[in-house]
Specification:
Radius of gyration: 18 Å
Distance between the termini: 36 Å
Number of domains: 1
Number of helices: 6
CATH topology: Double-stranded beta-helix
CATH class: Alpha Beta
Low-confidence stretches: none
């Protein structure tokens, strides 16, 4: 196994490892060390002919968990979700594409115990390109934050709803059963990583709906300032997909988004598995 840093502010690629095979304890530890150190790992030259193979690969990295909504779960697989760029919401009958993942977010931060990581495996890639997955290091963004903004957010929480009144796009509708436990929770604006001890901004433009101890207008002004600060190429890695790529990223330390395909109508189809995490730890 080789760990090679990407030509980017953060991230690494893993070569010479077949995730479809069980990993011994030493290799698991080495992979996890690379994961928490680099935030994003790119596993090259993977082949998962069946969903079971992808599930086995994800289990090498953590414990799979199901998404909140079952709409695009792969039949017979609670934890595997289909991501396709032409997705709509069949429950509402709306025909307009949802642009799933098409703006900055971190996965399922509206849960009391959000997923620690997300894995993504490319199956069909658009022939003309595009459809990148971009990442922002929220560790780097926090470290570069002006002192006055750090002081304003230290020890504060934000309410992370299933979908914020400020959200830039629609999300899948939920059944009454799916709403239980997923409407939203108060999360720290700065969270401490349980393994590295590093502090990171914990924001989600899709879900942050209010800031503790602030009026709606004050909270909106603060969130806008934080989002503007984070949207900076100094903290960003844009992954151009290759066939055989599998990614894992740390939801505790990064935002991510999908970019549009270069030619409208070309297909981008992937399988996604999220890995169970713990309740976020307030920094301090």
């Amino acid at each position: 196994m080789q760990v090679r840093r990407l030509e980017a502010p953060f991230g690494a690629e893993i070569l010479g490892l077949d995730l479809a095979q069980p990993l011994d304890a030493g290799t698991r530890e080495a992979v996890n060390d690379a994961f928490v150190d680099n935030i994003v790992l790119v596993f090259r030259n993977q082949s998962f002919p069946t969903p079971d193979d992808f599930l086995a690969a994800a289990r090498n990295l953590g414990e799979p968990m199901p998404p909140v909504t079952a709409t695009y779960r792969l039949p017979e697989y609670d934890a595997i979700e289909e991501l396709i760029n032409s997705a709509t919401d069949p429950r509402t009958g709306e025909e307009a594409p949802l642009m799933r993942g098409g703006s900055w977010h971190t996965d399922h931060s509206n849960l009391a115990e959000p997923p620690k990581a997300t894995t993504l495996y490319a199956i069909d890639l658009p022939p003309s390109g595009g459809g990148n997955t971009e990442f922002t290091s929220m560790v780097m963004a926090y470290e570069a934050l002006p002192a006055d903004l750090k002081a304003r957010i230290w020890g504060r929480k934000s309410f992370q709803a299933y979908i914020s009144r400020r959200a830039p796009r629609r999300l899948l509708s939920r059944t009454e059963e799916e709403r239980k436990g997923s409407d939203g929770v108060w999360q720290p604006l700065v969270r401490r990583h349980p393994e590295t001890g590093r502090d990171a901004l914990y924001l989600n433009p899709m879900r942050c709906d209010a800031v503790e101890g602030m009026t709606e207008a004050e909270g909106d002004t603060l969130l806008d300032a934080l989002y503007a600060h984070c949207d900076d190429s100094r903290f960003r890695y844009s992954h151009e997909w290759r066939q055989g790529d599998m990614l894992i990223w740390d939801n505790r330390a990064a935002l991510h988004q999908a970019t549009p395909v270069s030619v409208p109508g070309e297909r981008r189809y992937m399988h996604r598995i999220m890995l169970k995490g713990d309740a976020p730890i307030m920094a301090g």
